[in-house]
Amino acid sequence: MSAPIIAIDAMGGDFGPRNIVQASLACLTATPSLHLVLVGQAPLIEELVSGHEAVDRSRLRVIHASEAIAMDERPSQALRGKPDSSMRVALELVASGQAQACVSAGNTGALMALSRFVLKTLPGIDRPAMIAAIPTRSGHCQLLDLGANVDCSAEALYQFAVMGSVLAEILGVATPRVALLNVGTEDIKGNQQVKRAAGLLQSASGLNYIGYVEGDGLYRGEADVVVCDGFVGNVLLKSSEGLATMIAARIETLFQRNLLSRAVGALALPLLKRLQTDLAPARHNGASLLGLQGVVVKSHGSASVSGFQSAIQRAIVESGENLPQRLRGRLETVFQGGRT
Amino acid sequence: MSAPIIAIDAMGGDFGPRNIVQASLACLTATPSLHLVLVGQAPLIEELVSGHEAVDRSRLRVIHASEAIAMDERPSQALRGKPDSSMRVALELVASGQAQACVSAGNTGALMALSRFVLKTLPGIDRPAMIAAIPTRSGHCQLLDLGANVDCSAEALYQFAVMGSVLAEILGVATPRVALLNVGTEDIKGNQQVKRAAGLLQSASGLNYIGYVEGDGLYRGEADVVVCDGFVGNVLLKSSEGLATMIAARIETLFQRNLLSRAVGALALPLLKRLQTDLAPARHNGASLLGLQGVVVKSHGSASVSGFQSAIQRAIVESGENLPQRLRGRLETVFQGGRT
């Protein structure tokens, strides 16, 4: 793997550049071959960098961008009204080949719109999808879309299924079981988009499409790739995170009742904390925007320093694996083999 | 409360009438004022009843219905093609005043279609919604729709919000906080239906509409009533159930690792089992079809005997509380006060 260069949108997220700079410097220390480009308010970033010791400036560039995109800004405004935003400049570094990946904790809708505009989608893909792995009883499952597309056509769901399957293959699953998330497993169940997507997937070649899976089947590990629209995926991910947190809090309370239970609670709590982390991949590990001609990783807006570090790590892996190029190759095969 | 008469669709569900008959007889024993009407294949039901001892036949009628609706049958077929189905005959007993409520574990779509046709909806309500309470960090929240309506207009979401609020009031919440489930809390977030429903709710009088809530906010207890379309609600409910089961299994494994942890695991497991029950209200307690001119409770298709008993119990409470009449009264006030 050659030395990766990652462009960082230093102005995105709920907490401003402080956490992002700190996470970036930690990654530079942890990965000696890594080069980073921090994009945003250069004086502010330089000041934050100068507060840290022993920074290898030969691997750290700062590029000034005069604008920042607010978390509640409309994507259309971010696209048309801010040509010099930190997010856009970071993406342009990927488009021009000066960086291999972009990481941002900023406005999801704006990142989606700008990524499509600056990087373009892969052939056959209309809209990128956000994907992350969630834990199941038998391992993990790749869930997409997680919120980048609140409304999805049947064609979009079909494309997500193909992309998810290819990603799962790249990550080592031999013949990924691909399913559509639905409210029942019978043919008559679901809305029109899901039913039509099922028809497209049934006639697709080179895909191990196994049919519908329900919310409980997902956690039972019935599929390796689960496809849904971004509204449903976002609600599923966030409610799972909330539920895991609630269960952990209830068990914590239970274990505080007496000395014995307090002593033994220590046994269960690390497992629960680990589960909570697993269940909030977007918050802790970043989620990928899949289907673009470049690697883009979205970190959670309120990610901690270690959360943003994980997102950078994910970008290093995906660019090292040449994910977009491999995705393009496999997509061509699947689309040629199936419907045209 | 006068003696309630509940009509039971004895042929619905995944396991046939055996569990349903057993649950019905257990309810008759537990509630001495209760009268039940079992509707379905009379010879089969009579045979199952005769296998039990000490049945008070003065409180148990069996009404023959020559047809049964399959779990995967299209609602339109159930509506037009089966005039003598057990589900329909049971609902007709409610419509004619011979019973105060109907309980079915059968095909949800058919129950929805037949309930609307036989019982009609309340004034101002286009489509009934399925509602159940789910646990939160601070208590419970009423979630609707849980799967009766996979696609919902903004107007439908608005009506669900009003109905959910009224039910929460009836159940004792003084000024229920009503929220729309969304992928973010900013105004620009969400699909068109949700954004338009927000507009309708903002201008509604007599409602404590608090805005958007996300999946994690729901479990944090940010609202007393959470409104979404049936696709999203169904996925949320079933994935929560699946996740709770998965967490319980993982903790069970953890506690089996050594003697000490095995001994102490007993402390945590009852809590987890309780949580699992709480998180599967449709499976364990039944869910109500809200907005009809009559009480209809849907038991889960694979409900256990105790699960079906809980559904009958719910029907007893709702008919005792005159839920449809009280709902009608409050709906008139809200709809008159707000938009016309």
Automatic annotation (TrEMBL), chains A, B:
The keyword Transferase applies. Pathway: Lipid metabolism; phospholipid metabolism. GO terms for molecular function: phosphate:acyl-[acyl carrier protein] acyltransferase activity. Its main location: cytoplasm. One of its GO terms (biological process) is fatty acid biosynthetic process. It comes from the Bacteria. It holds the Pfam family FA_synthesis. Catalyzes the reversible formation of acyl-phosphate (acyl-PO(4)) from acyl-[acyl-carrier-protein] (acyl-ACP). This enzyme utilizes acyl-ACP as fatty acyl donor, but not acyl-CoA. This is Phosphate acyltransferase. The lineage of its organism: Bacteria, Pseudomonadati, Pseudomonadota, Gammaproteobacteria, Pseudomonadales. The gene is plsX.
